[in-house]
Amino acid sequence: MFKNSLRTFSKVRFNSPPITYRRFNNNQGNSFRQLLFDATSRRYLAILFGGGSLFYLTHLEEAPVSGRTRFIWLPRWLELKVGEYSYRSIIGQTRGSILPPNHPLTQKVSRIFEKIVEAAEKDPTIDKNLITGVKWQVHIVDDPRAPPNAFVLPGGKVFVFSSILGICKNEDGLATVLSHEFSHQLARHTAENLSKAPIYSIIGAILYTVTGADVFNRLLLDGLLRMPASRQMETEADYIGLMIMSRACFHPEESVRLWQRMAEFEQQSKRPGMVNVEFLSTHPASNRRIENMESWLPKARELYSQSNCGGIGGYYDSFQSAFGVPSFEPKTIWGF
Ligand SMILES: [Zn+2]
């Protein structure tokens, strides 16, 4: 993906007739070239580049479960501060719609989430500080107008919108969504995104100095770096989530069915007049996701069978039938 895009970029940039972008006072490109001809500037650039590379290499670490190497410099305390700030802001926006902690639905979803957390604690490859040092808490946002969504903030605050529960359909489906969101935090994807932000800004500034075309550069950055990185993190959260939910004795096969239901929902929501579903639009194409899930099933089944899940068949009981909460199913416009 990245290679193909890079090839396209090379073609545009170097093989096509030079594209010039008109703008006022277009002399920054020349200044940048002059920088390269000046010995002192070149020395500074070399120090900057060397220092930057050293910083990058010394801040590479391995993601849990997937083993992917990624760059994170953001300290944990700052990541938690960002989580705290977001939490306060979201609580302010959703106040009045959040079900109380003793509501049966909050308790039910919390219990499923707890099973996922407990299973992750048993995984020897996961740094336990990322789980035990966090105060996990589930909030159900019961707002029928809100599109289906679920997310977790750094610091362990989980938000589940009641409109997603009908698509989840049962506990295994909900475990798929919860373990996916949990995995984003476990793999510190927020910290990874924030760590990359200054790099994108620097690359953006350099591109702007060279080409002077802001919109073109933004498209390049998004196409070559931001979007592939975001899709990679989504796929990683799918993989880690599937492994953890299987350890937690939730049926991994249901994750495939859940994403099939999501795909159907996605199709319906594309109809004119339907609300754009952010949860889906920021995630990879459902078909690709279903293929991935299917290819990971053998490994997931292995973990499931190693977890002595034996007689626990009750998890598969219909989630909807267990609760008569009116807002549990998406309203009729969703067709579920
Ligand atoms: Zn996600």
TrEMBL record:
<dbReference type="InterPro" id="IPR051156">
    <property type="entry name" value="Mito/Outer_Membr_Metalloprot"/>
</dbReference>
<keyword id="KW-0378">Hydrolase</keyword>
<feature type="domain" description="Peptidase M48">
    <location>
        <begin position="132"/>
        <end position="296"/>
    </location>
</feature>
<keyword id="KW-0645">Protease</keyword>
<dbReference type="InterPro" id="IPR001915">
    <property type="entry name" value="Peptidase_M48"/>
</dbReference>
<dbReference type="GO" id="GO:0004222">
    <property type="term" value="F:metalloendopeptidase activity"/>
</dbReference>
<dbReference type="Pfam" id="PF01435">
    <property type="entry name" value="Peptidase_M48"/>
</dbReference>
<dbReference type="GO" id="GO:0046872">
    <property type="term" value="F:metal ion binding"/>
</dbReference>
<keyword id="KW-0482">Metalloprotease</keyword>
<comment type="similarity">
    <text>Belongs to the peptidase M48 family.</text>
</comment>
<dbReference type="GO" id="GO:0005743">
    <property type="term" value="C:mitochondrial inner membrane"/>
</dbReference>
<keyword id="KW-0862">Zinc</keyword>
<dbReference type="GO" id="GO:0034982">
    <property type="term" value="P:mitochondrial protein processing"/>
</dbReference>
<dbReference type="GO" id="GO:0006515">
    <property type="term" value="P:protein quality control for misfolded or incompletely synthesized proteins"/>
</dbReference>
<protein>
    <submittedName>
        <fullName>LAFE_0F01266g1_1</fullName>
    </submittedName>
</protein>
<keyword id="KW-0479">Metal-binding</keyword>
